[in-house]
Write a structure and sequence with these properties.
The chain is an alpha/beta fold and about 220 residues long. The chain is built from 8 helices and 11 strands. The chain folds into 2 domains: about 1-120, Rossmann fold (3-Layer(aba) Sandwich), CATH 3.40.50.2300; about 125-220, Arc Repressor Mutant, subunit A. It has a 5-stranded parallel β-sheet with strand order 2-1-3-4-5, sandwiched between helices. The chain has a 4-stranded antiparallel β-sheet with strand order 6-7-8-9, covered by helices on one side. The chain has a two-stranded antiparallel ribbon with strand order 10-11. GO terms for molecular function: phosphorelay response regulator activity; transcription cis-regulatory region binding.
C-alpha cells in the first residue's frame, strides 16, 4: 500500500517515510503543495498525510483540490496548531483526521491503518487469497494452510503484487517499477533475490509450488 506524504520539513518527512517503510508501506514524499497535488492526482495512493503550512500551495488548498477532483483518498491533516478552530477547518476542507505536531509515529500509524480500514471496507478487500495462501493487507500478516509466514516489508510487497496479478506473467521490469519503484532496468539482481527469498518461505515448506519462472518473460503466481 502506498502513502503520500506532503511535508516541506525534510526531517519530519524522512521520519514519517522511514517509519512507514519499516511498517510495510511504500511512502512517497512531496516537499510542496503543488508537487503533492500533482502526485495525488496522477498516481494511486491508499492514504495521504498533508501538512497545513506548505510552500507554493498551502495544505488546506491541496485538500480542497483533491476533494474537488473527487478523489476518494483518506487524508490525515498535520499541523503545529492544536486549536479546536484549526482542527475544524482542516476537517471542513476535506480532511478525514487531524494530528497536531509534535506527534508519535505509533499514533500516526494507527490512524493511517484505521483510515485505510474504513476506506477499504466498502471498496476493496482487505485480504488477498490464492488457494491456501492468504495475505492480510491491514494486519500485514501472511499464512499458508493456516501456518503463519514471517515476511520482510519488501517481501510482503512483492507477494502482494504477485497475488494481485495471479495467473499473469509479470516481468522483472514491472516488478522493479511497482515494488522497488525503479522506472528503469538497473541490471540488478534484486528481483531474482527477492523471488528466491519469497520461494524459501512460500513454496519450499510445502509440496505444491505457487511461484513459477517463465523463462524470458518473468514470474507468475498460480
Amino acid at each position: 500500500m502506498r502513502i503520500l506524504i506532503i511535508e516541506d520539513d525534510a526531517k519530519t518527512a524522512d521520519f514519517i517515510s522511514r517509519g512507514l517503510n519499516e511498517a510495510g508501506f511504500r511512502a512517497c514524499c512531496a516537499a510542496d503543495g503543488l508537487d503533492g497535488l500533482f502526485k495525488a492526482k496522477s498516481e494511486p495512493f491508499d492514504a495521504a498525510v498533508v501538512d497545513i503550512m506548505l510552500p507554493k500551495l498551502d495544505g488546506l488548498t491541496v485538500i480542497e483540490e483533491i476533494r474537488a477532483a473527487r478523489l476518494r483518498l483518506p487524508i490525515i491533516v498535520l499541523s503545529a496548531r492544536d486549536s479546536v478552530e484549526s482542527k475544524i477547518k482542516g476537517l471542513e476542507k476535506g480532511g478525514d483526521d487531524y494530528l497536531a505536531k509534535p506527534f508519535s509515529f505509533s499514533e500516526l500509524l494507527a490512524r493511517i491503518q484505521a483510515l485505510i480500514r474504513r476506506a477499504t471496507a466498502t471498496s476493496e478487500p482487505t485480504e488477498l487469497t490464492v488457494r491456501d495462501l492468504s495475505l492480510d493487507l491491514i494486519r500485514r500478516k501472511v499464512t499458508r494452510r493456516n501456518v503463519p509466514i514471517e515476511l520482510q516489508p519488501l517481501e510482503f510487497q512483492l507477494l502482494e503484487y504477485l497475488m494481485r496479478n495471479t495467473g499473469r506473467v509479470v516481468s522483472k521490469t514491472t516488478i522493479l517499477e511497482h515494488v522497488w519503484e525503479y522506472n528503469f532496468d538497473t541490471q540488478t539482481n534484486i528481483v531474482e533475490a527477492g523471488i528466491f527469498r519469497l520461494r524459501e518461505k512460500i513454496d519450499k515448506p510445502f509440496d505444491d509450488k505457487m511461484i513459477r519462472t517463465v523463462r524470458g518473460f518473468g514470474y507468475v503466481l498460480e
